[in-house]
Design brief:
550 residues
Amino acid sequence: MMEPRGKECCQRCTGCVRNGVYHPSDTEWTEGNEPCRIFACKAGVITESKLLCYTPCSKPKPAQPGQCCPVCEGCLLNGQRVTADRSVTTTEDPCVTCRCNKGYLSCAKQACPTLNCPSSKIVHDPGECCPRCRGTGRFFKPPGGSCLLGKEVFQPGKQIVLDDHCTLCTCNNSSLSCIRETCPVLECPSNFQIRPANRCCPQCPDVEESRASCTLNGRTYEDGENWKLDACRACTCKQGISRCVMSMCPQLNPCPPNARLEHPPGQCCPQCVESDGVCTVFGDPHYRTFDGKVYSFKGACKYQLASDCFGHTFSIRVTNDARRTMISSWTKTIAIKIGDLKVNLGQKMRVKVNGKKVDVPYRVANRVDINRTVDSVIVNTQIGVKVLWDGISFVEVSVPALYRGRMCGLCGNFNSFTKDDFTTRRNRVVQDAQQFGQSWAVGSKKMCTRISRPGNMDNEKRCRGKNQRLCNRLRSQIFDACHKKVNPAMYFKACIHDMCECPTEHCYCESFMAYAHECKRLGIQLPHWRKASKCRTVWDQTINPARRLH
């Protein structure tokens, strides 16, 4: 390609100007009182085409005011009902789009916009109506009013017939305008369609005789019979030809916070579904609330961690232990109460149900299932609340979305906002973590292993460098698969903090476990992090308590 002088390059697709009006790229419009005449702008090229109407009913009604095509009453197409919230297309011709409006079905086909990229970069994805340009391109504005299309430069006034035999383009003052023929709607399967040489449109072969049944995927259907291929596609048999329609899923933006994209079984399109709320407690207690607020609270008493404060269907309490330290504490036990059922989780994976020690796995029919993994005990309840406990100090509580806005305790209120997570028992919003945490203390002071006091910041500064080598493993290649999705900075800071008064040799592992679990919730598996970071499970410590980590 000859490179024009004085070129002007832009990295994004350019818009179009017609009759002095600017139209952004990837937009469509009509002009005057011609609803069947469609204009489209794509990367600086205007494509004009005509809508071709498709009426799948025998007695269509006239087009509605301002619309191009006649309509069919009932919104039924090839045995599938078209709903107002979703358009459908035929599998024989994916360029046909049918929509339902107030009980009337309207179907039309239009030509694809002219693409402004070299033919080597044009790709046509299976099942899609229009081809697209692969990758991102650079667009040059040639001098002297000439036009650029793909790799070729055309002089002003020049008319070009494209290789598809469907498109006639004209260069006018650096703007390229094209008229493109819209091919008729075909009702024969795509593998039967033929395209004559030097012709724009494919066509169906001549039908010698009408048949009373259809055969598709090895099955035979009678004339007029309807059936579903899957959740998105339905078919009908018409005079020996299987005619199918396919739902078109709406383009989804990223799901909002506290929601995830799911594809429900038996449904055609994915949808955003509210996520369970997850609260995490680890180390010298660091808390990540249901809404994502992170804070530390060193209270060494018994506290309400998470409860349904409206329906009172359950409550979860934790007892924190100072472990002979001056300013630190760690979670020691967990008490889960659902109705008259109480589950206690203790150190070294000890489990009690209604005061009696039980062996895991353990089940109370239609109430609770308690199971064990390689590094934790998991309590699953019938109401959807789940508690994970590592037998040392790591706790993870998840509650279904139906509890949104109903929660209270150290895990916050689960209302999608972090600003009011420090809501005290008396329903006051405070800023201080110590004041907030103490408001959720329960039971008598006999439950405290140390009178709660603020942390000694000077001591924390002095020991900040202690065992930093161990915490650095969190930022190493061991967790590299997750670093792009979850910033380890908060967990690293918590790790350094925890090592200041660490009463055991592996306090750093609790931060590692919290980080690994957040990664797991995002679908990132870190199967060997324990071995690589030399973090033992409570089972390892029980089997060989004399073993030391270096």
